[in-house]
């Protein structure tokens, strides 16, 4: 495992989390494009949990954690939160062909995540939502 970060679910802390992720990924030679993808994914997931996750335990705020490891040419990211149970993989894809005025609000961030990741899998364990994402390391990347 390269890194494991745990932070309170506050929007201000998401920036801190991403700065820490950036530093560790850079130190391990992960290229700019993949670092950008990881930061975008973490920011989107974290902001969704904070804004819409409703904490079922009654705790004053969520706990967010990110675990990242590398296996051959794959970067594996586990995003964990204490928000209400929510399976983003069960969400329908947005209708990108529909007129913008006719589209449902939301869902574009999850669509983006699905397109950036090689795989996205959800599970619920106790009080945690766990989202496992696999991203392919880019062959031509340099830090």
From TrEMBL:
Pfam annotation, one family? HATPase_c_2
Q: Which UniProt keywords apply?
A: ATP-binding, Kinase, Nucleotide-binding, Serine/threonine-protein kinase, Transferase
Query: Where does the source fall among the domains of life?
Result: Bacteria
> In this protein, which residues make up the domain named Histidine kinase/HSP90-like ATPase?
8-134
| Gene Ontology molecular-function annotations | ATP binding; protein serine/threonine kinase activity
- Name used for this protein in its record: ATP-binding protein
Q: What species is this protein from?
A: Marilutibacter penaei
């Amino acid at each position: 495992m390269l890194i494991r970060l745990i932070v309170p679910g506050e929007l201000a802390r998401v920036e801190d989390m991403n700065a820490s992720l950036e530093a560790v990924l850079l130190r391990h030679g992960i290229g700019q494009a993949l670092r950008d993808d990881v930061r975008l994914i973490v920011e989107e997931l974290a902001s969704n949990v904070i804004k819409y996750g409703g904490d079922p335990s009654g705790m004053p705020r969520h706990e967010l954690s990110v675990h990242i490891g590398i296996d051959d040419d794959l970067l594996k990211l586990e995003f964990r939160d204490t928000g209400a149970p929510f399976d983003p993989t069960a969400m329908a894809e947005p209708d990108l062909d529909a007129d913008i005025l006719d589209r449902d609000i939301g869902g574009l961030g999850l669509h983006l995540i699905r397109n950036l990741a090689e795989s996205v899998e959800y599970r619920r364990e106790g009080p945690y939502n766990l989202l496992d994402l696999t991203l392919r390391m880019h062959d031509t990347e340099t830090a």
